[in-house]
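Morning F.,

Quick status update on the modeling queue. The single chain you submitted on Monday has been processed. Sequence for confirmation:
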Amino acid sequence: MPPSDHNPDASHLDAIAEPSRPQRADGRRNQARVLEVAFDAFAAHGVSVSIREIARRAGVSTGTVTRHYPTKEALFLAVALHRIKQLVHSAEEIAAREHPTTAFFSFFAHLVRQSAADHAVGDALIGAGVDLETAASTAIRDFNAALTGLLTRAQQAGAVRGDADNADVKALIAGCIARAGDATAQQRMIEIACDGLRPGPI
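Structure tokens below.
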């Protein structure tokens, strides 16, 4: 993921902050700083990072963090939503650029690499630590629709076995993420998973 995705600019932070009431300038700056730090912290450690640690890195009190995000899950959700929307955009770009026989596999590899590089993506996709299906139904629905679209078109083109579904794909992604510390092993896992998703000999 490009550096700009890891460190969103102020306009992106404002867009995902969605304050419920007008804030003073210092409040907006603190909220933007918390989000900036949260992006990096969740990317490095996933949902396991604590509010206390995020506050320490942001140079604010834990009370300042919880004033904007009452729970760690709420803060993780703000970060995860941004990441999920980026994945949906990537799926749309790949679908428009590539043939259905290759688009699904390109997106699969993209999901694995993004999940390995950014733990917030991986935790969001496998539902670790927060129920995104409930808390972020619209974003998750958009992501699932994008993944299903690529998968269905690949199946219709005969590139993917017909009995595979989104749950199978996410489980395979989780398996590939497990080899994230070794780029060669991770690429091998991607190839093994993709080979398993292709139709067998008739």
